[in-house]
Amino acid sequence: MAGLASTLAAASCSSERPAPPAESGAGGAPTPEPSPGFVFGESDVSGPNGGSEAVDSAGCLGETRQAEAIDLDMYVMLDLSGSMLDPLPAALSPSTKWDAVRGSLESFVRAPDTTGIGIGLQYFPQASADVPFACASNADCGSGGPCTSSLCVAEGRLDSAEGGSLEFQRATGDGGTLCASDADCQTSGGSCRALPGACVFPAQASRTDPSAHFANVSDSPETSVATALCESQQDCAGIPDSRCEVVGLCSLAPAQCTPSVGCPSEAGICQPFPYTCAGYTSCDTARYAEPAVPISDAATHGDTLIASLRAQLPVGATPTGPALQGAIEHARVWAEQHPGRQVVTVLATDGFPTVCEPVEIPDVAELARLGASGPLPVRTFVIGVFGDADLGADGQARLDQLARAGGTARALVVNTAGDVASDFLAALNAIRSTAVSCDFQLETDAGLDLDRVNLRLTDAAGATLELPSVSDGSACGDSAGWYYVRDAAGVPVQLRVCPATCEQLERERARVDLQIGCVTRIR
User: Fold this and answer.
1) SS3 annotation, 238-282
2) Those residues with Cβ within 8 angstroms of residue 329's Cβ, 6 or more apart along the chain or in another chain
3) In whole angstroms, what is the distance from residue 438 CA to residue 504 CA?
4) Cα dist. 165→40, 222, 487 in Å?
5) Which residue, of 5, 203, 446, 517, has the greatest Cβ tally within 10 A?
């Protein structure tokens, strides 16, 4: 085999006389010396289970056998926010991000390669109980208000370039402050009003611009735009020649429009503005820890997953923090109940956090770090579906921060300018392959001294690389190595290699063998 023909070797020896001294590596596992100590390949004999055995200078017999990967379970936390309905380039089919992602997941669960893999599914955001999504006023939302149609507004005045001054209603605060009553506006100023319209200059009404446009009441009209809000024509009386028109949203782009101010080219048609209840999104972690489709590897499970996917309609914001925390909590409970399987979470999202604490990436990454450490660590894989503009200059780095904190090497980003359906499916398959390449059964044969286990890689030329042990996944960093996965009592139950080593194994499609200590003595 070209490239790295790797062998993972775990060596341990138990004999009647004291073991030779060795330097302890991180995590309490010693690094073997050439002599005295365990010498790989000094003498090979036929071992049980079709393996080979090597005798060390102290007379211990070590067994080598092909490593057995641990069965995999995946708990997928899937973004169902409204932006998943954003259209893909016209030349691509399917037409929206959601169509592409849903189709990829359906193909994944149908594929023969996923047979035996347990898959569970939940979506974010989850809706708060008894809170509707759409609203026209605060009364529609009840305890889940306010409605996004209600803002803190104040009267403004601006000197006009044509002489005189303009008087208008303007949103207060940075980007507007939602309110249910005037009391909510004490900090930002103004009063609470529902103002669904904006003052616009209809066609031919403005002396300076023959096209219809929003009245700009910014102090710096060359660099910013501030809209004059209105409920009726009376609110626009202070802006000569303007008219109050109900504001809508373009169907194919996040652009505002009115009956006179049309949508830009290729932005679709003007539709009613989708006002929503601010309390619609649930921030309750328990809602996300409860799966929409429980983890299962049953033969009929794919049909259940597909039916769930086809019943969803993206809507709402992006509560990444509680969604990820809930996913990790569910995966950890599942891992405790199924100790013979490895469990990972997959966070698939098309945006960064917008609601529910925590919303800052370092704080969300801390949730992933805690999940990947301690007893029965649960790794977090990250798939992002982003266009270049949405990703920005630091978007990849921010997503990578989440992935590394979750014990995986990097985030997998699917660019919306490409073939989203194919690339998202490739990302899922990469996660599947990586996960099953890096977790191995830990032999618990009598006499195996877990404090004297070492791993090493052997390439096609016979060169070896000793892998140091580390305390847990959080100690891996960017270096090669391995660690024990331990149960709640601290007892090792699995062997797991660090992300950097895992990437190498997956890239080279290497055979992985375990050298499992002393099974007898030869004299």
Assistant:
1) CCCCCEEEECEEECCCCCEECCCCCCCCCCCCEEECCCEECCCEC
2) 285, 289
3) 10
4) 89, 18, 72
5) 517
The encoded tokens of residue 379 equal: 């790794």
Q: Coil, strand, or helix at residue 522?
A: coil
Q: What does the DSSP 8-state code read for residue 350? A: S
Mapping DSSP to helix (H, G, I), strand (E, B) and coil, where does residue 127 land? Answer: strand
Residue labelled with tokens 């604490």: 357
Radius of gyration of the chain (CA): 30
Domain extent listing, the chain: 23-69+451-521, 71-131+287-439, 138-272
CB 378 within 8 A of CB 332: yes
Instruction: Return d(Cα 114, Cα 122) in angstroms, integer.
Output: 19
HSE of 186 in the Cβ direction (CA atoms, 13 Å)? 2
Tokens of 434: 């990586």
- The amino acid occupying position 193 is R
Residue-by-residue pLDDT tens, the chain, 523 positions: 333 333 333 333 333 333 333 343 334 343 333 222 222 223 233 333 334 444 443 333 455 444 556 788 999 999 999 999 988 886 666 789 999 999 999 999 999 988 889 999 999 999 999 999 999 899 999 989 999 999 999 999 988 766 678 899 999 987 789 999 999 999 888 999 999 999 998 865 655 566 788 998 887 767 778 889 999 999 999 998 899 999 999 987 888 999 999 998 888 899 999 899 999 999 999 999 999 999 998 888 999 999 999 999 999 999 999 999 999 999 999 998 987 788 999 999 999 999 999 999 999 999 999 999 877 789 999 999 999 989 999 999 999 999 999 988 899 999 999 999 999 999 999 998 877 667 777 665 545 566 666 666 666 666 666 677 788 777 887 777 788 888 777 777 777 788 777 766 655 555 555 554 432 222 2
Residue with tokens 């932006």: 83
Find the helix or strand (DSSP H, E) in which 45 lies.
strand 44-46
Secondary structure element (H or E) that encloses residue 305, with its range: helix 301-310
CA 453 – CA 396 distance, rounded (Å): 37
Instruction: Read off the tokens for 453.
Output: 């286990």
CB 146 within 8 Å of CB 138:
yes
Cα–Cα distance for residue pair 335/400, rounded to 1 Å: 25
430-320-316 Cα angle (round to 5):
110
Evaluate whether 339 touches 375 at the Cβ level (below 8 Å): no
Q: Rounded to whole angstroms, how far apart are CA atoms 431 and 345?
A: 10
At the topology level of CATH, where does 71-131+287-439 sit?
Rossmann fold (3.40.50)
